[in-house]
Every structure is written in C-alpha cells, then in structure tokens.
Amino acid sequence: MKKKEMMMILGVVVIAAVIFIAVQFMNTQKNKDVVRVIYKSDTVLEFDPNKDAEYWFDGSYGKLMVEVKEGQWRVTNEECPNHVCSSTGWVSADSYLPIICLPNEISVELK
Predict the structure, then answer these.
(1) What are the Cα distances from residue 3, in Å, to 8, 13, 14, 17, 91?
(2) Could you report the per-residue pLDDT of 8-25, keeping only the tens digit for each?
(3) Which residues cross the membrane (predicted)?
(4) What is the reported pTM?
C-alpha cells in the first residue's frame, strides 16, 4: 500500500472512532437526566425520569401528583382553579418544557 492510501484508511478509522465515542457520550448523558420538583424556591424532590413512579405534593392551593412513565412526566390530579399544569401533558428530555402550577407554587423541570 502506498503512504497516501494508508493515511486515508487511518483518517477513516479516526473519524469512525470519534463518531462512536460521541454517540456513547450522548447516550450516557441521556441516561443521567434528573428532574426536580420545586416548591416555592426549594427543591423538594429529584427523580430519575426513566423509573416509573407517582409522587404526591402539597402545594399552596392543594395537592397535585407528578406521574413518571417511560422517560416522560406530567402533572395530573391537581387541585387548582384552571388545571393549566395538567393540560401541558407529557414532557420528556427530548421535548423539554417546564411544568408550572402557579396556584400551588410548584414547578417540575429538567435539571
């Protein structure tokens, strides 16, 4: 093989290795997502969005539940006048949007 061909093969191998490492890093970062629930200005809970669960909270106006399922989370069963926070629907790290319940002074956001 000529020197030029060896350099080209080496270049392709280096580019493939960089792409592989970048993909692995991105997958690792995605699995480390943490969602936090904030009441007033205090973090009251941090949870892994990849573990299904239900969490109940007492807010300033009443109770609300954060449901976590298959890497997504939503607010449901909340006690507040307009139910705006539950109409936000399911949120995930890919389509991130904070969920804010103003009457209860609770927000749910990706850390």
Answers:
(1) 9, 15, 16, 21, 53
(2) 888 888 887 788 787 776
(3) 7-26
(4) 0.70
